[in-house]
Design goal:
The complex is a heterodimer. Chain A is of the alpha/beta class. Helix content of chain A is about 35%, strand content about 20%. Chain A has helices at about 1-10, 20-35, 75-80, 95-105, 130-140; strands at about 45, 50, 55, 65-70, 85, 90, 115-120, 145-150, 150. In chain A, the strands form 2 sheets. In chain A, strands 1, 4, 5, 6, 7 and 8 form a 6-stranded mixed sheet that branches. A two-stranded parallel sheet of chain A has the order 2-9. In chain A, a hairpin with a 2-residue loop joins strand 5 (about 85) and strand 6. Chain A is elongated. The N and C termini of chain A lie far apart (about 75 Å). Chain B is of the alpha/beta class. Chain B has a domain at about 60-170. Chain B contains 5 helices and 6 strands; from the N terminus they run H-H-E-E-E-E-H-E-H-H-E. Chain B has a 5-stranded mixed sheet, with helices on one face. In chain B, strand 2 (about 60-65) and strand 3 (about 70-75) form a beta hairpin. Classes of the chains: A alpha/beta, B alpha/beta. At the A-B interface, helix 2, strand 2, strand 3, strand 7 and helix 5 of A face helix 2, strand 1 and helix 4 of B.
Chain lengths: ~160, ~180
Amino acid sequence: MSKFKKKQGNTTPGISTASLPDIVFMLLFFFMVVTKMRDTELMVKVNTPQASEMTKLEKKTLVNFIFIGRPSEKYEKQVGTKPRIQLGDKFATTDDIPLFLAKHRESVPEGQKQSVISSLKVDKDVTMGIVGDVKTALRKAGQLKLNYSAKQRERTK
Amino acid sequence: MAKKNRMANEINAGSMADIAFLLLIFFLVTTTIAEDKGVLVKLPPFSNEPPPELKLNTRNVYSVLVNAQNQLLVRGELMDIGKLKSNAKIFISNPQKLENMSVSPKDAIISLKNDRGTKYGTYLEVYNELKAAYNELWEEAAMAKFGKGFEELSSEKQKEIKEEIPLILSEAEPTKFGEEK
């Protein structure tokens, strides 16, 4: 009896934390892989409006992004404060849109070209004039699927 | 002697977890699992010819105008954005069969027009409300017909409902008011 008791007292090993680094590293790698560093620098200020009727953009490769907003402080001196279009990593006009779309379409595998979506990331304080011009340019270029990027909110009552 | 040597050679890995935790927390904080969501829109194809003059019964047209002051004019009357959805729903379904509203959901046409000076935020809000009106009507139709939510239905049944209550939204060329200088 006394022997048994003694043994129990001696062998209370703390939980081994040796595998803790492994677990943490696994999580770490997961987040490192998932994290996507922004690849294109935003040159315009874009604060998208809120909406409730949203559709998710499924395939990233089928989406091209068009940013519209006022130039950020860094570029104000060069281009002024009027709303601008940003395609890829430079400022553009509506005339550059067809080429931009054609370049993106080239990277899309054959057979999926008709499901290409243009995602419009537009600042909520921009007026519709420039947005309308972009829409017309997109229609002329045959890009009819659009997605107005927005933040999720509840549907109004 | 030998024992001492071995002890000196072993690197203490106890702080490894701390370092890894630090990195983990950094990535946790910086990660924004990018969810790209937005309002899906299909544009009409471009043509140089002016659209054909259609004789539309005015009772079937739900005209929405958004001006450069971000005010809403719905069928000739000033309206609050908050009321747009419920008003549009009543217009489309016309439960009381009123003379001045759409004959049936199939005939209802939403016509949206904005100025060049309209704020994009307002425009999208209006668009969103109109879409919400249709989404709610589809949801109600799905419940009444199949006793299930619209999202849970098969795509054929969804199509069936969408054929009964088609979303027809025509956007006119914006007028040139309030263009930013």
